[in-house]
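hey can u run this one w/ FE2/S2 (inorganic) cluster bound, need the structure tokens asap thx
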Amino acid sequence: MTVKPVRKLKAHIFICTNERPPGHPRGCCKEKNSEALVSGFKEEFARRGLAGEVRAQRAGCLDTCEYGPSIVVYPDNLWYGPVQPADIAEIVESVISGAPVERLRIPGK
Ligand code: FES
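ok here u go:
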């Protein structure tokens, strides 16, 4: 059996889509519309021809709930929140350029 080589990604974006019951003291990213970020990032990658180079996927709680919706970009270990759909293009541009989006960085991360 031959194993196909795995393509190396330039960046991997994990988006918290954790859901908690209504009224939970920590809230959750799902109630803050984080699902829209998953589809938004994928659409932006496709629009820029980056599919296969970068990947966005759902993640469980990143333990930065107070800053949600939160995301983390690897391998650069950049944590952002609260991220809105309007921020997606700027974040994708930062992945390409290598310059973090300072205004969205989660303090201490
Ligand atoms: S619920 Fe999203 S970081 Fe905790």
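The chain has a mean pLDDT of 95. anyway lmk if its weird
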